[in-house]
């Protein structure tokens, strides 16, 4: 039988694991895209010139919002500084809002097939960055 302290530690560890895993997409999107990454994104999505023009401000605004949200919640990817559990939960809520807004805005510009490919790109980047956030 676990005592109260042991149960509390186990619960805290579970919260950090769940919240940390949920933050990975947010971290991926918070990083600034290099020109090469933008070119790869444009190629994979097979964007028209009009779509390129339309998504640029969406992605820039999204990255800016993500970066300021990370700062607001005390996350520093360079030093692996992360907030406590409650701030991680708040950060996750803010990032989910930003993600939903970004995806909604992109859905107005991209076709259904392009949006599915965008989701795949985000999932791939999530796998790459997963190790970085848990430093």
Description:
The chain has 135 residues and is mostly helical. The chain has one domain (4-133). It has 5 helices and no strands. The protein has helices at 4-30, 35-45, 49-72, 85-107, 112-133. Helix 1 (4-30) packs parallel to helix 4 (85-107). It is elongated.
N- and C-termini, Cα separation: 32 Å
The number of distinct helices, counting runs of at least 4 residues, comes to 5
Q: How many separate domains make up the residues?
A: 1
Q: H/E element string?
A: HHHHH
Shape: elongated
Rg over C-alpha atoms, rounded to the nearest angstrom: 17 Å
Number of DSSP E strands: 0
Approximately how much helix is present in the residues?
over 70%
Parts with pLDDT < 50 across at least 5 consecutive residues = 2-30
Q: What share of residues are in beta strands?
A: under 5%
Mean of residue pLDDT values:
74
Derived from helix and strand composition plus strand pairing, the structural class reads mainly alpha
- Main sheet specs: none
Topology:
Layout: H1 4-30, H2 35-45, H3 49-72, H4 85-107, H5 112-133
Helix pairs in contact: 1-3, 1-4, 1-5, 3-4
Which key phrases capture this entry?
mainly alpha; elongated; single chain; 135 residues; disordered N terminus
